[in-house]
Amino acid sequence: MLIETTRLGEYNYGALLQAYALQRAVRDLGGQPCTDESWPVTDVTQFLNRTYGVIRERFPSFARTKRDLKWRALERPRSFVTDKLDTVSIFGWGAKPRRGCRLDYDAYVVGSDQVWRPHSALGSRMLEFVPDDSHGVRLAYGVSFGTDCLSVANETLLRSHQRAVERFNYLSVREDSAVGMCRQLWNVDAVHVVDPVMLYEAADYTALFETDAPKVGIQSGGLLSYVLDPTARKTVLVQSLSEQMKKGLRSILPEDPCSVGEYFEDPTRWAYPSVPQWVSSFARSDAVVTDSYHGLVLALTFERPFVVIGNARRGLARFESLLRTTGLEAQLIRSQEDVGDICLDIDWASVRERIATLRRTSWEFLCRSLAPL
Question: Which pTM was predicted?
Answer without folding.
Answer: 0.92
